[in-house]
Amino acid sequence: MRIIESTDNLTLKEIQNIITSSKEYKKNFSKKLLGLLFFAPSTRTRTSFSSAIYKLGGNFIDIDPKKLDIKTAKR
Predict the structure, then answer these.
(1) Distance between CA atoms of residues 21 and 15, nearest Å
(2) Phi, psi of 47 (to 5 degrees)
(3) pLDDT digits over 51-63, tens only?
């Protein structure tokens, strides 16, 4: 995966691959229910993930780790 800052440096084949991939993602997320679980609070990350899921046609459950019995390894 690479970071795309501009389409100026992309070939037509690369642009077609991006469009094909995005259609596959949308098809795979459509009508799916996903769980979002973040151990560290991050409004920007949570918002980015939830809006991406919504745009792809899915739904999500926002899981609060403080309300679950989950043990994390301390390093």
Answers:
(1) 10
(2) -65, -40
(3) 988 888 899 998 8
C-alpha to C-alpha distance for 10 and 4, rounded to whole angstroms? 9
Task: Show Cβ contacts of residue 60 under 8 Å, excluding neighbours closer than 6 positions.
Answer: 33, 34, 35, 36, 49, 50, 53, 54
- Between β-strands 59-63 and 33-37, what pairing exists: parallel, antiparallel or unpaired? parallel
Q: Please give the model's pTM, rounded to 2 decimal places.
A: 0.59
Cβ contact 51:41 at 8 Å:
no
Read off the amino acid at residue 47: T
Strand partners, 59: 33
In this predicted model, what pLDDT tens digit does every residue of 12-66 receive, in sequence order?
999 999 999 988 888 888 888 999 988 888 889 999 999 988 888 899 998 888 8
How far from the centroid of its chain's Cα atoms is residue 47's Cα?
A: 10
Per domain, the residue ranges of the chain are: 31-75
